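Q: Please design a sequence for this.
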């Protein structure tokens, strides 16, 4: 076994690998970019080496800098994590040539599976079932269109070298094919440096089921059962679970044996995932093989009890697999939810900013438990536009799926983030969704359930307003009402008491909260020793008490009693905004400021044609003087390697285009003016 491991990655996966390596007694080396100088993965390792600028191409995609760091630190092995260089055969070969163990498959296996079209040819020869489609080398647009016409719509265009949902488009008709192809090729070239695509029949109500395989250098190859990754948005996974609901032993064995056959066909070594698309009748087809560890590997660890990173390191050191196929068992059910800094209500656009507050449920980290959190950021860290906006992975285990789902709901209710928008509330609604609860799963579930998963925001109820108002009082040092269990006796000197007492016997505090654009007036009053709260329907008896929180200068744990009804929650006061976290979800309120709101009608940028996030302009289809219709595409932005089309929100004439192709823009920048 090598004694020093360089981790050629960042964020959550770098921290995850470091945790297992430390447990195994290995010395760890991190690499970092300008943006990651103070990142969590740097602190998690014994040594860290600077490798370049914030853009991935200037740092985490620099094979030369990473290999030099390995040589300089005496690393005997490199773990690539996932993403970046993890599936780059040239990097794997260069490590091998340098005498450094690559914790992954041989370069030949990466090359064989790196091209989706070539991989499908191999799989066909190995007897693995394939979806009808075109996987050839002819990339002429008209030829590809004729192939799509022959396959029949809808079809799926996929980047041949792609992954992670990038470079994929569903096309519903022949007339839409060429525009979708061009967009797909641009995104593929930007993300992978390769604009080749393949075309497949798009299956209706399919499930995405993948098999975890593992092989060693001694000829052993096993499958560690399946994961269901059907719940996706923009072809990217949102929820993963194991085992797959409704999976029969017969089908599990058939899919597992097909996955092992796929691995053996390319001389595979290490951890890999063979992804299948499954139809409702049970038929399944090979999609692709990911020649690396998957983001969702913890659910497999939860149900098997095996540490897959440890398996990777042992196999890379030349040791045999730690278990045989007959030794592997499924124990219970596991679900993983990816906590992202993103806005589900705006098409899941990434959210950039600083994590001013991060609260998590009691958990284990990077190791199995009822609730496990694998995270790569901490409170105070910044989510930048350079990398994936994942905050953490929340993984739960239960005796069965119902218990795991209930445990996930509990864990999500205790997951609180301030400073960026997150998908936590969306995930909670998903866990409660009737289709998800009944395991009626397919890759179109989120779109089908859109109305219930992305409802119009509800007005804050009295308890939410009371919690936010109580937090303001506590922040100002106002003592808890006499008679509450934790109020205490108070100071000996009555003049030191900060409990709202007034010589005339009356204390009032007026607060105005802005709730989804509507002003909500709250009056907190003390008459004698009694407190009331009025939200517009008359004063009601009001008590509150606070308790310790993770950050007492920012977050307030509160329990209130409003007219005899108790409610508990955590309120984070950040600037003039209150984030109220309760068991049933979160609510955001703004303290009304007359000066700020006098500006609300100013700065309107032509029907809202502003950049939804920082990014680069990659295509502009209009110029000043052009007449446009509502819904017409105007320009395309690229952010975090994903394309975002900006369309006209009303009919009109383009007055001015403020940027050119190649320009970087900030969030909120006016892009196009329409009159």
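A: Design:
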């Amino acid at each position: 076994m090598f004694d020093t491991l360089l981790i050629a990655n960042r964020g959550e996966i770098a921290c995850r690998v470091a945790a297992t390596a430390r447990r195994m007694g290995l010395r760890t080396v991190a690499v970092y970019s300008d943006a990651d100088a103070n990142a969590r993965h740097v602190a998690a390792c014994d040594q860290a080496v600077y490798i370049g600028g914030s853009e991935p191409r200037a740092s985490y995609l620099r094979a030369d800098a990473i290999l030099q760091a390995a040589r300089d630190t005496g690393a005997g092995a490199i773990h690539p994590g996932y993403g970046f260089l993890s599936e780059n055969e040239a990097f794997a070969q260069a490590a091998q040539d340098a005498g450094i163990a690559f914790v992954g498959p041989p370069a030949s296996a990466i090359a064989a599976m790196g091209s989706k079209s070539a991989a499908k040819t191999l799989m066909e020869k190995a007897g693995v079932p394939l979806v009808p489609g075109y996987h050839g080398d002819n990339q002429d647009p008209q030829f590809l269109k004729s192939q799509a016409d022959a396959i029949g719509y809808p079809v799926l265009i996929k980047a041949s070298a792609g992954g992670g949902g990038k470079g994929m488009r569903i096309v519903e008709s022949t007339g839409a094919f060429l525009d979708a192809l061009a967009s797909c090729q641009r995104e593929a070239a930007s993300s992978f440096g390769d604009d080749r695509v393949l075309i497949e029949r798009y299956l209706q109500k399919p499930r995405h089921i993948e098999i975890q395989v593992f092989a060693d250098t001694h000829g052993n190859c096993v499958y560690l059962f399946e994961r269901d990754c059907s719940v996706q948005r923009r072809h990217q996974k949102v929820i993963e679970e194991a085992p797959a609901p409704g999976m029969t032993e017969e089908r599990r064995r058939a899919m597992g044996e097909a996955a092992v056959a796929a691995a053996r066909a390319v001389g595979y070594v290490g951890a890999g995932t063979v992804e299948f698309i499954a139809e409702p009748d049970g038929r399944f087809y090979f999609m692709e093989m990911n020649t690396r560890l998957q983001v969702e590997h913890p659910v497999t660890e939860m149900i098997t009890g095996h540490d897959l990173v440890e398996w990777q390191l042992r196999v890379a050191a030349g040791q045999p697999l730690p278990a045989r196929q007959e030794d592997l068992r499924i124990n219970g059910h596991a679900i993983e939810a990816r906590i992202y800094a993103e806005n589900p209500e705006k098409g899941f656009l990434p959210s950039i900013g600083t994590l001013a507050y991060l609260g998590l449920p009691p958990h284990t980290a990077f190791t199995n438990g009822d609730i496990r959190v694998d995270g790569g950021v901490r409170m105070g860290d910044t989510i930048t536009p350079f990398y994936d906006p994942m905050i953490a992975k929340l993984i739960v285990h239960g005796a069965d799926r119902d218990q795991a789902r209930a445990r996930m709901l509990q864990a999500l209710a205790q997951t609180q983030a301030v400073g960026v928008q997150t998908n936590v509330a969306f995930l909670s609604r998903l866990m409660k969704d009737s289709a998800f609860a009944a395991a009626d799963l397919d890759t179109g579930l989120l779109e089908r359930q859109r109305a219930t998963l992305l409802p119009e925001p509800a007005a804050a109820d009295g308890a939410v307003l009371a919690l936010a108002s109580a937090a303001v009082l506590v922040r100002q040092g106002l003592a808890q009402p006499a008679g509450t269990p934790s109020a205490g006796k108070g100071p000996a000197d009555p003049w030191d008491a900060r409990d709202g007492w007034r010589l005339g016997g009356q204390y009032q505090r007026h607060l105005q909260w802005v709730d989804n654009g509507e002003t909500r007036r709250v009056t907190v009053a003390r008459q004698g020793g009694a407190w009331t709260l009025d939200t517009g329907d008359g004063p009601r008896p009001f008590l509150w008490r606070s308790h310790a929180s993770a950050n007492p200068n920012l977050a307030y744990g509160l329990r209130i009693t409003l007219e005899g009804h108790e409610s508990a929650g955590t309120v984070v006061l950040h600037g003039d905004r209150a984030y109220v976290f309760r068991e049933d979800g979160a609510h955001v309120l703004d303290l009304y400021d007359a000066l700020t709101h006098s500006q609300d009608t100013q700065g309107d940028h032509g029907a809202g044609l502003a950049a939804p996030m920082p990014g680069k302009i990659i295509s502009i289809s209009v110029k000043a003087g052009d007449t446009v219709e509502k819904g017409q595409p105007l320009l395309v932005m690229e952010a975090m390697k994903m394309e975002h089309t900006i369309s006209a929100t009303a009919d009109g004439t383009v007055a001015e285009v403020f940027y050119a192709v190649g320009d970087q823009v900030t969030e909120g920048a006016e892009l196009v003016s329409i009159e």
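Q: Thanks. Anything notable?
A: DSSP finds 18 helices and 38 strands in the chain. The CA atoms of residues 379 and 510 lie 32 Å apart.
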